[in-house]
Write a structure and sequence with these properties.
heterodimer, A: alpha+beta, five-stranded antiparallel beta sheet, five-stranded mixed beta sheet, 10 strands, about 35% helix, B: two-stranded antiparallel sheet, 11 helices
């Protein structure tokens, strides 16, 4: 393999590594709650009035949607929550349990991230458990799919390791021929 | 003499530093084994992930099977990066035989570069796969661009690991460390079995309708050609590169052991995670209490592995010509491509029903050409492995 080709391969590796680090950065940033919610929704789950803050609207499919839930009732100390993102009709996905923890800035509130892996209509299903029993409410949300690349391009990128493997195997053949020439 | 064979430096003047080289040998062995742990981890995690997707659905991006897969990729990436940086720094202080120079700057085992690039490709495939799912839903087939990208990447990382461990065995042999040489060769056998296992995740899909096409005149199934390419390449390369008897059979034994480990691990891990995540099975899905991948593990490669070992032994003892050896190996490799799995021992008959007799004949002819190409590549790669970074 020529040194020039090796250097090109090295440059490709560096660019690929930078792209990977950038992608990790985007994924981490997506989970960070902003200063101001992009959308505020006031809903009532049975006897419990709630304010749901969504920090991205529409949400980005494939990334986490940061959210916060605050109770507007006086008995918020006794409330516990369960949150799922539920796919709407026609969205090829399954319900996903959201991860959340207590919101340090809001008494009785929670903050967390809901995953929306597929673009389309979803809802954030919030189950509230309190002294007055359990109730469920859904907040409709939309996950915007990223711009689609052509399927053929996806395949070409996906098959890159295969191409690399075949080039390597052919080079092994060349290497053997070279060894034989040297032996002669 | 310092001979640069496209970057392979072989020093045989009096600059050897036995103690230092022993340290490099140990370092390469430990990092090679670390990569091996990474690829085995990835294989088990992928089997778990397939179970999770099939029974529960693809939910969070960082669900434990995905985390486990990423840990395997990260382990490979970090181990190869460490190997390259440490050996490069070493080579600047003292001559480092048994190493390959890359881009005029780096010094390390050829296998480390292969595994490093493969791990990088595997890591890149992960966000690309999330992107693909966000466009096309969670039920994307296993033969989707970025599924193939990360499975093939990690299979190549296993191949890099085998190269690295065979290079370690050559170093150990030169230094008279026979125990380490045996351990490195055994590691290479496990790495090649893992590579076989990872490629199997892709080819088992061909046993179903997905592997059948109709060009207009006959139904053709691609499983025989894919299986013979894979078996011929892997088994022949291993028997050429690794000394000793029953090399292909030992690879096959590890390959079956990996399926057993999956069977022990995957159903328990899936039930545990379902309970933790408060999730249930998908509609119309019952708990099979088995690892879906394990029960689809092809069994006919047992015949191919044993047959290849017997034939190669006969050929070595009786000095067969290369063409006679190839002609003897082809039907044995083809035998390994008969679709037989534990849950459906008569899968081959089902396939006859799907593609018809003419389809079977064409599929087997394709399989025979796959056996030829696979064994040709395998012999070349085995010879290159046999010579890799050998002084």
């Amino acid at each position: 393999m020529s040194t020039l080709f090796q250097r090109l391969l090295l440059a490709f590796g560096v660019v690929a590594l930078l792209a990977l680090l950038l992608e990790i950065g985007f994924a981490v940033v997506a989970t960070v709650h902003g200063d101001q919610p992009a959308r505020l929704v006031h809903v009532t789950a049975g006897p419990y009035p709630l304010t749901v803050s969504l920090y991205k609207n529409p949400a980005d499919a494939g990334f986490a949607l940061p959210f916060a839930i605050a109770s507007d009732s006086s008995q918020h100390d006794a409330l516990t929550y369960d949150v799922f993102s539920l796919p709407g009709t026609g969205v090829d996905a399954t319900p996903i349990h959201a991860s959340f923890s207590a919101d340090p800035n809001v008494q009785g509130g929670i903050q967390g991230n809901a995953e929306l892996p597929v673009g389309g209509a979803w809802s954030l299903q919030i189950t509230v458990h309190g002294r007055a029993g359990s109730s469920v409410v859904s907040v409709p949300i939309t996950a915007a799919a990223p711009p689609a690349i052509p399927v053929w391009l996806g395949w070409q990128v996906g098959l890159l390791p295969f191409y690399g493997l075949f080039i390597f195997l052919f080079m092994q053949h060349g290497k053997k021929n070279k060894l034989q020439e040297q032996a002669v | 003499m310092a001979k640069a064979f496209r970057g392979v430096h072989l020093f045989n003047h009096g600059l050897a530093l036995p103690q230092s080289l022993y340290t490099v040998l140990i370092l390469r062995f430990i990092l090679g084994v670390t990569i091996l742990v990474g690829v085995v981890d990835f294989l088990l995690a992928t089997a778990w992930d397939i179970q999770w997707h099939s029974l529960i659905g693809r939910d969070r991006t960082l669900v434990p099977p995905h985390i486990m897969m990423l840990c395997g990729i990260a382990l490979c990436g970090l181990a190869t990066l460490s190997a390259i940086l440490i050996e490069t720094a070493w080579a600047r202080r003292a001559p480092l035989p048994h190493s390959t120079t890359f881009a005029g700057t780096f010094h390390c085992s050829l296998g480390a570069y292969i595994a490093g690039y493969a791990a990088l490709m595997g890591a890149l495939a992960f966000p690309l796969d999330s992107y693909w799912h966000s466009l096309y839903g969670i039920d994307v087939a296993i033969w989707a661009p970025f599924h193939i990208m990360f499975i093939v990447s990690m299979a190549i990382a296993s191949l890099g690991c085998a190269y690295m461990l065979i290079s370690t065995a050559h170093m150990a042999s030169d230094q008279g460390k026979n125990g380490l040489q045996r351990a490195a060769y055994n590691g290479a056998i496990i790495a090649l079995a893992t590579m076989l296992g990872l490629f199997t995740l892709l080819i088992i899909n061909a046993m179903s309708d997905s592997g059948t096409i109709n060009p207009g005149f006959v139904e053709i199934n691609f499983y025989p050609v894919l299986a013979t390419l894979l078996l011929g390449w892997t088994f022949i390369a291993a028997t050429v590169a690794i000394p000793g008897r029953w090399v292909a059979t030992r690879i096959l034994a590890v390959y079956l052991l990996l399926a057993l480990v999956m069977q022990g691990f995957v159903p328990i891990a899936t039930e545990w995670l379902m309970a933790v995540e408060h999730l249930g099975f998908r509609e119309k899905v019952d708990n099979p209490n088995i690892s879906i991948v394990s029960v689809e593990w092809p069994l006919a490669p047992i015949l191919a592995a044993i047959g290849i070992d017997i034939i190669i032994r006969q050929a070595r003892q009786r000095g067969w010509s290369a063409s006679r050896l190839t002609l003897s190996l082809l039907p044995v490799i083809l035998l390994g491509s008969i679709p037989v799995v534990i849950y459906a021992p008569t899968q081959a008959l089902t396939l006859v029903g799907v593609v018809g007799v003419m389809g079977v004949v064409v599929s087997l002819l394709l399989g025979l050409s796959g056996a030829f190409i696979g064994s040709w590549f395998g012999r070349r790669m085995g010879e290159a492995m046999q010579q890799v970074e050998r002084s």
